[in-house]
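User:
Care to share a sequence and structure tokens?

Assistant:
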Amino acid sequence: MNLATFSGPPSSGKTSIILKVIEALKQRDITVGVVKFDCLYTDDDILYEKAGVPVKKGLSGSLCPDHYFVSNISEVVEWGIDKNLDLLITESAGLCNRCSPYIRDIKSICVIDNLSGINTPKKIGPMLKSADIVVITKGDIVSQAEREVFTSKVNSVNPRAITMHINGLTGQGAFELSTLIYGENEDLKTVKGKELRFPMPSALCSYCLGETRIGEAYQMGNVRKMNLGGEDDE
């Protein structure tokens, strides 16, 4: 079984892109399943079910969605193998610009859209910077010049990634992506023992542990204060 991890900011078009990629893979008789990770709510699983795609969803609730992802990915892979899938796709919530749900030696795809702002690539962090493939969506809504400038911003942040433009509505470019995320000679048995590409935030503060009172007296653990009397923090 192959494994590919999709992530990206909310509303960037991850689910639409995955569905178009699956359409292209089905034409090659490749069986695909999806596991959707989110925080509080998602009905994307209904879209996958309507497309005849085996799907599971997991809601992290009050936990960081990426910590939830890593805590469950081993069992998720076992589910995919039990389903005899050729390719398992995981879709991350991508709600934190510090998210880093990628695993070494596992294909990683970041989906980002042209409408998110010209400096968005610099704000996303390891979710974009450590991806193998960066998919840029909603290019049909902006001008050619805007597309080129945005692509340049993406390349400056992650120059080693393959950058692609895909239309989530028409599927233009999805076939090309499908050829990159599935390899016939790959056969993943487990992710146990594999490593993340980038460490996740691991320090705990009092608010992580349930504190609700405001003020320095209630702040414990890993706390970082702004420098309000001098230069701005970088």
The radius of gyration is 19 Å. Strands lie at 2-7, 32-38, 55-59, 87-91, 107-113, 133-137, 162-165. The chain has a mean pLDDT of 89. The longest helix spans residues 65-82.
